Amino acid sequence: MDEQEFAELAAGAALHSLSPADLRAFEAARLEHPEWEQRVDVDAATAAALSGAVPAVVPPPAVRAALLARLASSPQGGQNVDSSAPSEAVRGEDPAAAAEDAHRAPRRWTRGILALAASVALLVALGVGAALISDYVNRPPAVVALQQIEDAPDAQSATGEIADGGSATAHWSESVGKAVVVTDDLPQIADDQTFELWFVRDGAPLPAGTFESASGTTAALLEGAMEPGDVIAVTVEPQGGSPTGQPSTEPILAIPTA
User: Fold this and answer.
1) Mean pLDDT over all residues of the chain?
2) Is pLDDT above 70 for 110?
3) Distances from the Cα of 81 to the Cαs of 72, 85, 108, in angstroms?
């Protein structure tokens, strides 16, 4: 047994999830390698912190969903097996070794989950709090896209005036392929109307989604990938967007990206 496998078993032991065979192997390795005992102490302390140091609260749905998504993407034993593939023996591989690899997958998964849970617990213990974690996970798509754009080396922006008052700034990045419009003090529109976004490409308007706006600042992500030279426009349309797929009013905003 190498140290990596021992670390995987130590995580399982801390979570009381080892099979009887793995538990026997784990205890034998502890006797044979006392220099690895520090891993056991660290994982045991982590598990204890998870159960006792953090107040028992119901996690926000977003945190639970993020954890389940991590679980779903983690390799687990018995998954992704191609029944049409030749057996290990036919390929010249050692069946016993292949079986051991499959058996070790849940151990790696267990260690990954222990590390993930410890990270979340550390954030809560440091005062970040479940509410803040939930806010981060639940960021609106426009906010996430705006951060991606601003982090891109080719991020660009331009500001334009809105008809009937107010202003808006378009943010875009060709490498990210996204554009976000941040508006300030859009004009009031009727309840049966909405704002619609457009990419105007080579003179042809392409619908890019609708958005609602309350008073103040609003960020809206344009649907679809932008291309160099697009004009970003906003019109006022019937609720749900233009039924013809073409603007039915003159744009209240038009910002060139070239």
Assistant:
1) 76
2) no
3) 16, 8, 18
Angle, vertex CA 188, rays to CA 183 and CA 192, nearest 5: 110
pLDDT of residue 2: 86
Q: Give the E-state strand segments of the chain in sequence order.
A: 156-161, 167-173, 178-184, 193-201, 204-211, 217-221, 231-238, 253-256
Residue 211 has phi, psi (to 5 degrees) of -155, 155
* Cα–Cα distance for residue pair 152/173, rounded to 1 Å: 7
If you average pLDDT over residues 130-151, what whole number do you get?
A: 75
Model-wide pTM > 0.85: no
Q: Report d(CA 156, CA 69) in Å as an integer.
A: 33
Give the tokens for residue 54.
Answer: 């953090």
User: What's the pLDDT at 37?
Assistant: 84
What is the per-residue burial (b if ≥16 Cβ within 10 Å, else e) of 82-99?
Answer: eeeeeeeeeeeeeeeeee
C-alpha count within 13 angstroms, C-beta hemisphere, residue 184: 8
